[in-house]
Write a structure and sequence with these properties.
The protein has 152 residues and is mostly helical. Helix content is 68%, strand content 0%. The protein contains 6 helices and no strands. Helix 4 runs antiparallel to helix 5. The chain is elongated, with a radius of gyration of 24 Å. About 5% of the residues have low confidence.
C-alpha cells in the first residue's frame, strides 16, 4: 500500500488565527467557573444548585480540582458560598458535607494562609455555630417531646 503525500490539504488550512475553528479548552472546572461568577455577582445559590446535581465522587473531584492561585480566589469564593448557603437556612447537612471535603483537601493551604482567610473563616464559623445551635435546639425539643409522649 502506498500513500500519496504529494497532495495535501495544507493549502486549505486557514492561516488567519481569527478564522481558526479550534475550540479553546479551559483547565478550570465547572465548579470553579460557577464560583468565580457567583463571587463576582454575590449570588451564591448556583454553586449549591450545581453541586446538588452531582454524585458524591463527582463532588469530591470538583472540590479537589479547585484552582489555587496567589489570591486564593476559588477558596475564598467557596467559603463565601458556604457561608451564604448556611445563612439561607437550607441544606445544612449538604453544606457541612461539602465543607468537610473542602477542609480535608485544603487544610495545609488554609493553615499557610490563615491570616488572609481569617475574616472569611470567622464569618463561616459564626454562621456554623448559629445554625448548629438552631439544629441542636430542635433536636433537644424533639427528644423532650418524645420523652413526654412516652411517659403518658
Amino acid at each position: 500500500h502506498q500513500f500519496d503525500f504529494g497532495t495535501s490539504d495544507a493549502a486549505n488550512i486557514p492561516t488567519d488565527p481569527t478564522s481558526s475553528k479550534l475550540i479553546s479548552v479551559s483547565s478550570e472546572s465547572q465548579l470553579a467557573r460557577i464560583l468565580f461568577n457567583a463571587h463576582t455577582t454575590r449570588v451564591y445559590a448556583p454553586v449549591f444548585e450545581y453541586l446538588k446535581t452531582l454524585n458524591p465522587s463527582a463532588i469530591d473531584v470538583e472540590i479537589r480540582s479547585l484552582p489555587v492561585d496567589d489570591q486564593l480566589k476559588a477558596l475564598k469564593a467557596f467559603v463565601c458560598a458556604t457561608t451564604c448557603q448556611l445563612k439561607s437556612k437550607r441544606d445544612f447537612e449538604l453544606a457541612q458535607a461539602y465543607l468537610h471535603v473542602f477542609i480535608a483537601v485544603f487544610t495545609d493551604i488554609i493553615k499557610a494562609n490563615a491570616r488572609e482567610l481569617e475574616p472569611l473563616l470567622a464569618e463561616l464559623r459564626n454562621e456554623l455555630k448559629a445554625q448548629w445551635d438552631t439544629v441542636d435546639n430542635l433536636i433537644r425539643y424533639s427528644a423532650c417531646m418524645i420523652e413526654f409522649m412516652r411517659t403518658k
